[in-house]
Write a structure and sequence with these properties.
The chain has helices spanning 3-6, 40-50, 64-71, 90-99, 121-130, 179-186, 195-205, 225-230, and strands at 9-14, 34-35, 38-39, 55-60, 74-75, 78-84, 108-112, 115-116, 135-141, 151-153, 159-162, 169-177, 210-214, 220-221. The protein has one domain (3-230): Spore Coat Polysaccharide Biosynthesis Protein SpsA, Chain A (Alpha-Beta Complex). The strands form four sheets. It has an eight-stranded mixed sheet with strand order 5-6-4-1-7-12-9-13, sandwiched between helices. A two-stranded antiparallel ribbon has the order 2-3. A two-stranded antiparallel sheet has the order 8-14. Helix 4 (90-99) packs across helix 7. It is built from eight helices and 14 strands. By secondary structure, the chain is an alpha/beta fold.
């Protein structure tokens, strides 16, 4: 735990419809899908708490009341604030709406509410600051370019475009935004948009400093039924890599 992370807000995108997972889990929103008898979202909050995060904005939508009823306004040492969308806004729109709830244009962690990638958030933050990045993306190695979008990345880990990246690095769904990105999004009207396919290419076109952070760590997407079934083998095991 460091003072750096104590003062940082994290946003978890937990408002998706979870249509891919309906065959395995149909009565709760995707982030509440049970893993080893615990809602998946609890593991994400545990990960943030272990890293020293004290405030989390949950961007919710589909079956939002299930999440609110379970967590209330506090999870252990974490204060929880809700950003609820009335109609689906996509990942980009959900981030924009949530960022408008922050007190100022400060650095923020953003993470997907349906992926498990227990990297060291404190190490990612140090890397982000050392590179003076506008945005950092935590990445894992995968040769699957159909399921995951590839990036073109230089040897010093700068992201130059989305394309046919030879390094086989794919987004693990954890991001850090510096103040310039937060300010930009705070001043963007709330609208339905995709962070991955619309906002990220826009930031790249504007030549903002975007950095890849890598770590050898298991990645799992519980939105895929096969991965969800396997998740119990990997999630919930003690992880001190914070």
């Amino acid at each position: 735990m460091t003072q750096d992370t104590n003062d940082i807000t994290a946003i978890i995108l937990a408002g998706g419809l979870g249509t891919r997972l309906r065959s395995a889990v149909f009565d709760v929103p995707k982030p509440m899908a049970p893993i080893n008898n615990r809602p998946f979202l609890e593991y994400l909050l545990d990960h943030l708490q272990q890293a020293g995060i004290k405030k989390v904005i949950l961007a919710i939508g589909y079956m939002a009341e299930s999440i609110q009823h379970h967590f209330g306004n506090q999870w252990q040492d974490i204060q929880i604030i809700y950003s609820q969308e009335e109609t689906p806004l996509g990942t980009g729109g959900a981030i924009i709406k949530a960022i408008k709830m922050m007190a100022d244009d400060d650095l923020v962690f953003v993470m997907n509410g349906d992926t498990y990638f227990p990297i060291s958030l404190t190490n990612m933050l140090k890397h982000h600051k050392s590179k003076k990045a506008s945005m950092s993306i935590a990445m894992f190695e995968s040769e699957d370019n159909n399921r995951y979008s590839p990036f073109n990345i230089t040897k010093d880990m700068r992201i130059t475009s989305k394309g046919h990246g030879a390094m086989n690095l794919k987004s693990g769904g954890i991001y850090i935004f510096s103040k310039d990105i937060v300010h930009y999004l705070r001043n963007t009207p709330i609208q339905k948009t995709s962070f991955e396919s619309e906002l990220t290419p826009r930031f790249l076109a504007e030549n903002r400093s975007m950095i890849a952070y890598t770590e050898t760590c298991y990645f799992i997407d519980i939105g895929i039924p096969d991965d969800y079934i396997k998740a119990a083998e990997y999630i919930g095991v003690s992880n001190k890599n914070i």
